[in-house]
Sequence to fold (475 residues):
Amino acid sequence: MTGVAVPAKCRNCRHFRNDPAYLEAAIKGLSAMSSAWGSVRADDGLCLHHDRYLSAEASCRDFQAEAVTAILC
Amino acid sequence: MLSQHFAGNWQRYVVQFVLWAAAFSVALSTMGRKVREFLPAFALLYAMSLAVFVIGQWETANFYGFEAPLVALLLGLAIANTYGLPRSFDAGFRVEFYVKTAIVLLGATVPFTLIIWAGPVAIVQASIVSLITFGVIYWVGTRLGLDRRLAATLGVGGAVCGVSAAIAISGAVGGKKEDAPIAITLVILWAIVMIFVLPIVAHAFNLPAGVGGAWIGTSEFADAAGIAAAQTYANMVNTSNPAGGTGDQAVLAFTLMKVVGRDVWIGIWAFVLAIVATTRWEQGPMGRKANAAEIWWRFPKFVIGFFLASIIITWVTRDYSLAEHNREVIPGLVAPIKDLRSWAFIFCFLSIGLTTRFRELAAAGIKPFIAFSSGVAVNVVLGFVLSAYVFATYWTNLSLAP
Fold:
């Protein structure tokens, strides 16, 4: 088995949160007339490091890979 | 009378509840939601919906303008903003889920030929209004000193599809954490005001049903709030309508304008603004490359369901003459689907009220309020002119006949 580095994008960063339930709790009013489950959100989420709402495809120099990394067998 | 009705029909309601609960449970479980949290809340929602239908049949309430959608909304708002319900009940108050279900069911009652005929008009009218509304909000916002990302989030929220647009654009341009909640607060406040104001004004102006629906579709930002306003106007039109048209025309015109004319373009708005944000605006510590695939990622997929439902029903009923359609298809197929749609609408309207807790909304600030309200004012006036004058012929003659 070989551990591989994941792309340095927000979706793989430990500071990034894009779970729909988390976002609905964090973004006031989101579920009143919409939701975090709709496709318009794509995979966007909150960066807890920069306090920004970002695309999962974004990246920055403060990237830190999540604890769980992809494994190739 | 009421007790007699429920004594004679209680089995029907039980079966209907079970069918709704089963269908929604399957759908939600495929999305990874917890059905055991959903079911108790949905049971309460269904019971409240029954009460709303009863009040909606009350002529005295209708006389004073308390149509079923408004009753549902007010009842929900009253509960949510006084004693409230446990937060866990939000699992069953899924506004977006119910409104999308209702719109797909609406598609099943609309001939596809009508969508082809009226769709381009809706797109042209919606594009004019969306571009100008966005321009006004963005221009006023940046002149007032707002950050360009916040101004863009407010602009598309007002111009396209409300809360959903705000969240999509904030992510596309990499806005601050507080940008989307500010836009959401303003969208919700104005959307709720418009639910009450637009149908009353449309009725006061005696707008034909299709024209009123198109105006609401151009002037409301959120799908759920817009449907509430359009359905309220539809009920008013069905009760008294000197200008002509049916309630179904109002709901259909709204849907074409809002869903086909505005919602489907959110991916393009997000893609274009992502390009602008990454190439023209000052960069923060984060970077990204705009990706055209975003147009598809953000495409509201329920619109495909709306089109598919229309295509399937149109194909299934293609060999019926107009007389046969009126005699067999409408009572046997269209009417039951419309009945289900009415229930989905009421679930949605109640859920809007039950999840709108004013004290929990983010503080918006005066500058965002002025910028957004400027767009609302332009939006409402321009939408009226386009619906009631420029494209009035199309909306007045919107026909549901195949």
